[in-house]
Structures are given as structure tokens and as C-alpha cells.
Amino acid sequence: MMQQYRSNSYLFGGNAPYVEELYEAYLDNPGSVPDNWRAYFDNLQHVPAVDGSDSRDVAHAPVVESFAQRAKANAFTLKASATDLAVARKQVHVQSLIAAYRVLGSRWADLDPLKRTERAKIPELEPAFYDLSESDMDIMFSAANTYFSKAENMSLREILQALRETYCGTIGVEFMHGTDPAEKRWWQERLESSRSKPNFTVDEKKHILERLTAAEGLERYLHTKYVGQKRFSLEGGESFIASMDELVQRAGGKGVQEIVIGMAHRGRLNVLVNTLGKMPKDLFAEFDHTAPEALPSGDVKYHQGFSSDVTTVGGPVHLSLAFNPSHLEIVNPVVEGSAKARMDRRGDKSGSQVLPVQVHGDAAFAGQGVVMETLALAKTRGYFTGGTVHLVVNNQIGFTTSDPRDSRSTLYCTDVVKMIEAPVLHVNGDDPEAVVLCTQLAMDYRQQFQKDVVVDIVCFRKLGHNEQDTPSLTQPLMYKKIAQHPGTRKLYGDKLVAQGVLAEDGPDQMVKAFRSAMDEGRHTSNPVLTNFKSKYAVDWVPFLGKKWTDAADTALPLAEVKRLAERVTTVPPTFKLHPLVEKVLADRAAMGRAEINVDWGMGETLAYASLVASGYAVRLSGEDCGRGTFTHRHSVLHDQNREKWDTGTYVPLQNVADGQAPFVVIDSILSEEAVLGFEYGYASAEPNTLTIWEAQFGDFANGAQVVIDQFIASGEVKWGRANGLVMLLPHGYEGQGPEHSSARLERFMQLAADNNMQIVQPTSASQIFHLLRRQMVRQFRKPLIIFSPKSLLRAKDATSPLAEFTRGEFRTVMTSLHPQAEADKVKRVVCCSGKVVYDLIRKREEKKAADVAIIRVEQLYPFPHKAFAAELKRFPNATEVVWCQDEPQNQGAWFFVQHYVHENMLEGQKLGYAGRPPSASPAVGYSHLHQEQQKTLLEQAYGKLKGFVLTK
């Protein structure tokens, strides 16, 4: 080992990171490095770089490479005596030791409360690795690049002790993987100046013990009173409640006014009572099944959300705990979206007033992909929330029976956060003061740098995954250790008694006081403000308790439509458009003058323009949203003469009217699950913004199915949470293969019940205009799923005259008759939804089938029974009704609408099906086969009823 180390120059090899760090410090402040190094770096400024260029202000990486090259070539020497060179070499070795502790110290830290294994030996943390021996221990070395002492020099013995206290105690910090020198120096100063040791007052220590007592007391109270009922106990991780308490108080003191919290089951009931201030008696009512049941479905108590306003040293802080399903980390993007909406409402661009907090379990944090997807949003412009504080309740066993060797492929469960260079503070849960200190550091870092940070509370789980589980079946050794553990509260209470902070019976008195509060059902947390109302709070009352209606006044005066059309087709005079975009805008201007019919892109644009002009904000995100996947939107225009990538764009919809509401369009990262979850969270906190997520292709919503199932479809019936999110899902069979055809309409139909959402397939420009406006104009909020077209974006059939924007509304059902047809002569009614209607119309003209009427159902759910029945009654002599669809028989709307259609048919009418046969795949990949299937289904629509036929 020593031979390997000596073989490297002290300016090369293992010392390169130290030299690089030293040079970074020199560039920032020359006076911060030792004199001999400062002189050397000063000289370096006048030495040509390796490539022969002037090295003045050269970046640190090329400088380190320069060191290496000169060291290899033996072309670099210091004009110093042999003794000076030996001293310098020793100094470099000491600095390398310091650097090693900063990088690797966490691996030797005392983090496991159960002490199940010996601490691993880390050779790089031993002085001998750097050719430093006992004889060097009392030699004085420069400590100018550390913060251990105000003295410039320290003995090696003192330095080593300081390093071990700082980086290898009950706190182990990872921050050197970051690339920002200022951040690394910040951590070094904060940790080394205190040696990672808290310095709390007597009252602060008593408060920490009180929080531990509350955390443990609630669990034991529930365990005694409600034996065997699931609650996902926090026992073994009680320090987490002390951390949450400190986080709220610290945040309030630093100007945070809202905290949005996401967490799964473990400790959730404890947070509800001991952090958010839920009345214990209300929690007990849920256990006793005496709580009111006001929702159609409801959910288990450890999924419930809650909000409250609590007092802090900095003033009132609003706490909001997001509702969370059993899919654990799926709440991450929802919380971030909710935080973003609150920031936008406040005009808080930095996130200084709104704090997202994510609480993770160790196994889920390492194992679930939505964690990575959400982290990837952290620094992007459209999803930035000012940094998230992540707290990991790390019980070292995952969720139930897993062996730690099988729970992940990384050293730490938190390693995924290194992708965004987030620092991680690992801390022993049995040292609650250290946990609180880490929480303070994390909060301070987040506020200063607006970046994510993680506190990994290494603890244990006293009971099983739930209270009906027996973990010793698979973890006998671990649970022998846990059985012998007295509990964190007991350990800390004994410590305070030994310090003289409390009398001998002090901890027991706290336990009795908490028990008394539980028996009386009183608050056990910070005072909750019952009458406080923030001016930024959203009033959802106008949107709740309303009966479903399809009607809405969405038409606009002609003059306003023309004004909006002129605004969205005007660009600055010096702005150079691409020729294709120039033609698009010219055509749209002509549409606004009623010279040609309005196409889909213009209809959609006019809807957005009218909304922002009326005070409704619009937020549109997804992959390729600015241009549109099918180059139909062009909401963001690009100057063809721009010189920089981040300048030279113009958004007409941001320039519609003075004082207009914001229009935000975001080209998202290549993620469906996290981005859709984010937008759901945004819409859940902001009812006055038209929030839209657009899939690149409809079938790509597959990647976000958990969000659709757990939140969009069921959030209202489970949790009473209204939400007006819009999903645009491109859908249509044009021979483009399985993943580019279907948005899986059948899945949404299967989820439709209790008027939980709207499932719509509009087929014209005026329909999308009225539909988008209806979503905001009506005074209630329901998720809106739009199966948007692809081929119809430019199809003449789907264009609309300007007059259709100035009258009428969104039509749930539309009927097409043959030009020579008479209603009483119609023998067959073909019903459909989507673009197939235009294929059916053309086929009818080809066959001259004047006795066939075509009814297109634009709104599939809630099914428009009255409108549909009224259209069928127009044809009293029709004996046959056919449902025709592009999709395979086992997909699409057929199995779900056949009952609705049958219910509204006239006596004696027969119902049949025309469409593709059942298929395991959404669509074929061979174009010729697609054409054959399309031809066959159109023939079926006009041919003899076959197969399964229902008679009224």
C-alpha cells in the first residue's frame, strides 16, 4: 500500500483531489490557502499551460492536469531544500488525509443504533496510508484550509481527533460529490467549526425529550388500546418526530410560510397528531369506527391527509400533509406540484416561502423509479420548487422480510440523490440531538442554495411491517438486538438525568403527562391556530357540492375572437420566423378574419387566449408541448437569427392582453409518471389554473398508470379531493403501430364511476375550443381526459367556421344525416366516437346509404343519456343500431357504452358491433393489415349484423 502511495508524486495520483480543492479555494480567495501554496499558485499564473496557452485564470481541472503532466515528465521542481521538500510532502499527506475524511468519513461513522456489525475498516482514513506514523502525531501542520480551530497550525494528533469527531461520530455526511466549491466550503465550515456536535440549551434538550416522549407515547397508547389494528408504528424511529418538529420551527424562523409534506405509512399517524396537531380524540374515533363517513369510498386512516396552521418562532406556518395511497413514493411528484402551485400563487420564484418535505422509507427510496424521475425535475425551469428536504426513516430492513443484501445495489439507500448532487446527512437515530442538528443543517442549506438535501435517520423498527406481522420469522438476529434495546426515549432520558438537566423522575413525569393528554384527547404538538386564514389560501367551497351539468356559456363575441386571433398571430417586427411557421401564422390570421375555417391548433390556441384574457391561468406541460408533437401548436416561436440557445423565443399567448393571467408552456423531461403526478399536485392546489398534461402519444400514459389509478380516478371518492387536471392523449388508428395508435380508452372507461371524471373525444376545432373553456367556466372541478386526434389536426373535415366560436357550446352528441336523407326513412343508426366518424361519412357517400344516420358521441363519460336518447328518437323507424369503433373489440369503448346505448334504444331495435376483432395488442404494426382491417370494419358498419347482437 505504501509503495503504491509513494510511487505517486505528491502533486499527482491520490493527492490530485486535494490539489484541485486547494486551487479552487485559491481562485475564490488567495488568502485562504497556506503561504507556500499561495506563492506557488501565484507563480502558476505566469506559467504556460500544457497546451501552450496563457494560463491566467485557468480552470482548476486543466491545472491539475498540468500538475500531472509535469510530475510525469520530471520537469517540475520546487526551489527548496530537501528538508523543506520533505515537510511540504508531509503537509500534502496531511491534506490528503483531511480530504479522505471529508469524502469517506461517513463510511466509518457510528450510525447503527443496533450495532449489529463492526465498523468496516477504511484504509484511506488511517494516517499510515499516507506514510504518517506515530512520530508525526505531535508535529504542527497547517490547518488553514480547515475550520477546526482559529489557530493556523494544529498537531496531526489534534487534526486526526477533529476529523474523527466531525466526520465519524453519530453523524456521517456526504457532500464532496458536489461540483460547487462554495457549497463544499459551506459544509466544511458548518461541520468542522462545531465538529458536528450540537450545543443545545437545557430547555432545548427538554423539548427534544418531550417530542420523543410524545412519539413513543402515542405508539404505545395505540398498541395498548387498539391491539392488533394496523397503524405502521414508528417505534424505533422516534427521533423522526423531533426532526419534524425542528424542521417546522426552523423553517418558520427562516421565512417559510407553507410546508407541503409527502410520506407513506410508517409513522404517519404520529405525524398527524404530534406534528400537524390532529386531535387525538379524532384519531381514536377512526380506530373506533365512530368517525363520520361522508365520502362514497373513503380510505384507511394511514392514507389520510391533513392540514393545519401552527405557531413558529417566525410566525404562522401552514402545514399540509398530502393524501397518499399504498404506492409509497408516488406522492413525491404530487407534493412537488402542490408546492409549485403555492409558490406561483405567492409570486415566490425562489421557494423561500414554500417548502416541500418528502419522508421516505429506506427500501422505497432506493427501489422505486418515481423517486429518480422526481429528483430529475428538481433543477428544471418548469418544475423548480426551491429544493426539497428529504427525511429517510431508515429502519434497515426495508418493508418486511428482505435481506439487506437484496434490498438495493448501492452502498446507501440514498445514493440515488447523487444524480442531482444533493448532500446527504446520515445520522444515528439513537442520538436525537444529532438528528435535530442534521435537520437544522439541512434546512439552512436548502434556504441558502435552493437545492435538495437528505437527512438519513438510521434507526430500527421495533414491530413488524404492520402490527400483525412477526418479523423474527425471517430476521431472528436483528430482532434479538431490537428486543434488548431500551428505546431511544429511555436512552436520551437517562442521558439528561446524568447531565443534571432533569431530576431522576423527570422522564417518567413526561410520560405520565403525555398519557394524561391522550386520555383526555388533547393536543400534543405545537399550538394549532384555529382561526388563522392566510391571504394566499385557496377557497375550494365554490367548486364543491355541485351537481353535474354539461352546460356552460363558452361562446365569445365575434369582435373578441377576432381580437384574440390577431394577438396570437402577431410577432415583434424584428423576429425572424421559420418559413413553415410563418405560413402557419399567416393561415391562422386568415382564420381569425373568417377567410378560411379554423383548424384544431387555432381552436385550441383561441381557447387558451380567451382564458388568460379572462383571468384564468393556463399551465401546459409534457414532451414537445411548445411546438406540439405533431407540429400543430407552435405556442413557442423561435427566432431563426438568434445567437444563443437560451434567448430568441416569443410566446404570443403571453401577450394577449394587459394584465392577463399567466400562460406557461413547458417541454418536460422524458417522464410520464413524475410529470403527470406533478401536474395533478399542481391542480389539486390551484383550481383557477387550467392545468394540462399532454402525452407525446396517448399510449405513453401507460408509464403514469399509478397516478391515473390512485389519484386522478379515485382521489375524490377516497379523500374528497376535487381536481380539474386535463390530460391530452393523442389517439387514433392511422397505421402507426401499437404504441402510436391507442391511448387505452378502455382503461379510463373501466375507471369511470361516481361522476369522477370526464372522458371526451372531440372531433372538431370548435369542440376543443368550447371543451377547454368549459373546464374553467363551470363552477366545479373534475379531471378531464381528452382523447385528442392526430390526423384530424390538419384534416379539412375537422375545421370549423368562425361562427361556431361565437355561439353554442360543447356538444356531447352530434348527428350526421345524408344530404338526401329524411329522418323517418332512416333504417340504421351507426354510433361512434372519434375520427372514425369521418371515415363512416365518406363510406356512406360511397355507398349512397341515405337510410343510415351517424351519431357521434363526443363525451363518453358521464354518458349524455338525455342528449343521446333525443337523437335516437329522431329516427323512429330505425330497426338497427350499430356501435362502430377503430379499436379492437376488447378495447375502446364498446364493452362500456353498449349498456348505455342499449338503455336508450327504442323498443324492438337491435344493437350490433362493427370494428376490429379482439386483439392482445392495441394495433397492428403492418400498414397493409391496418388498411384491410379499416376497410373491413367500415363494411361491417353498413353490412348485416353479425355475432353478438342485443335486442331491446
From TrEMBL:
Q: Does the keyword Oxidoreductase apply?
A: yes
Matching InterPro entries: 2-oxogl_dehyd_N, 2oxoglutarate_DH_E1, DH_E1, KGD_C_sf, ODO-1/KGD_C, THDP-binding, Transketolase-like_Pyr-bd
Q: Give the EC class as a word.
A: oxidoreductase
Q: Which cofactor does it need?
A: thiamine diphosphate
Keyword Nuclease in record: no
Against Pfam families, the record matches this protein to: 2-oxogl_dehyd_N (PF16078), E1_dh (PF00676), OxoGdeHyase_C (PF16870), Transket_pyr (PF02779)
Question: Which keywords describe this protein according to UniProt?
Answer: Oxidoreductase, Thiamine pyrophosphate
Q: Which residues form the Transketolase-like pyrimidine-binding domain?
A: 598-795
Q: What is its EC number?
A: 1.2.4.2
**Family indicated by similarity:** Belongs to the alpha-ketoglutarate dehydrogenase family.
- What NCBIfam families does the annotation carry? 2oxo_dh_E1, PRK09404.1, PRK12270.1
Protein function:
E1 component of the 2-oxoglutarate dehydrogenase (OGDH) complex which catalyzes the decarboxylation of 2-oxoglutarate, the first step in the conversion of 2-oxoglutarate to succinyl-CoA and CO(2).
What is the protein name given in its UniProt record? oxoglutarate dehydrogenase (succinyl-transferring)
